[in-house]
């Protein structure tokens, strides 16, 4: 039997994700499953979520749990407490689990932080994106520098791990203004930083506005300069880059994301949530109202189900793994999946070696300094 056909002992997922779709406003660049201005659906959503969690229960305690969105902290204190009660009742956590929540700076206050602390949240990921009013207005975000800085300081007093997201290459942004964002962020009490170039995804308002030339984009060279600036500023602030877009203080890597990148399975609940359990990838209906309606009718909210073969699994794990700065442990991947990706992708990887984008470091295949900004191209060589 060829090794690609032998059955797989799929690992029991150690991670879980729950999607909360509510937001105050849909930002023009956002392509997530979001519902804005419909807070009256909070109760119906929570009932639906509780039902879904009972249909696909998690038996063994997980090592990481991520409450994302949307904006989970957009829920009122009353509904946020009910949400956390449901989560606590349905998702068992290991004693040292990482328990994260996404939050918007404007939602952060003492009452919500006390609630998060009471339910054992130990990591908060704040969608700051920028500290500058003009850029925040372009991105349609509803906070300013004072609100964002105050939220970070307040959160750091009660939650041990504080992460923020920053967007670069927004329309009209300069290298100087990006530098100011980085300087402001790195002077605040954060333990983790994620930076992303703004993307224009089909179906978003930003996509349409760019098509009409209402929004300008940056050329690749400027984006690259901004990316390299983030890397050097983070390094100077003792934030180690451990993945293409992720920087962390000591022992502050996002363990939940490490589970995704290692491709060892995760549970997912809520509208649009995508899980990977027992070799099958599932995606729930993206529309929050459809999700709620289906769950309330006793119908599964899953829209797509795709069984993953052993080769696809190994190649996808390699594509994500190579984006980690420590590199990809090819032998371990072979051991765990039964697939040796190197001969399988020899033709695609040869140019990456020739151009000096990847190199061997012991048994790890890793990006070189030249390859780090070109990680997407290297990654796609595995797919
Ligand atoms: S706050 Fe975040 S999730 Fe909500 S609409 Fe804006 S980008 Fe999307």
Automatic annotation (TrEMBL):
Using the record, list the residue span of the signal peptide; answer none if the entry has no such feature. none
What Gene Ontology terms for biological process does this UniProt record contain? porphyrin-containing compound biosynthetic process
One of the record's GO molecular function terms: metal ion binding
Q: Where is this protein chiefly located?
A: cytoplasm
- Superkingdom of source: Bacteria
Radical SAM core domain mapped to chain residues: 8-243
Q: Which UniProt keywords apply?
A: 4Fe-4S, Chaperone, Cytoplasm, Heme, Iron, Iron-sulfur, Metal-binding, Oxidoreductase, S-adenosyl-L-methionine
Family matches, as CDD domains = Radical_SAM
Q: Which GO terms describe its cellular component?
A: cytoplasm
Annotated compartments: Cytoplasm
Q: Which InterPro entries does UniProt cross-reference here?
A: Coproporphyrinogen-III_oxidase, Elp3/MiaA/NifB-like_rSAM, HemN_C, HemW-like, rSAM, rSAM_sf
The record ties this protein, via NCBIfam families, to: hemN_rel (TIGR00539)
Briefly, what is this protein's role? Probably acts as a heme chaperone, transferring heme to an unknown acceptor. Binds one molecule of heme per monomer, possibly covalently. Binds 1 [4Fe-4S] cluster. The cluster is coordinated with 3 cysteines and an exchangeable S-adenosyl-L-methionine.
Q: Which family does it belong to?
A: Belongs to the anaerobic coproporphyrinogen-III oxidase family. HemW subfamily.
Instruction: Indicate what this protein is called per its UniProt record.
Output: Heme chaperone HemW
Q: Which organism is it from?
A: Roseimaritima multifibrata
User: What's the source species' lineage?
Assistant: Bacteria, Pseudomonadati, Planctomycetota, Planctomycetia, Pirellulales
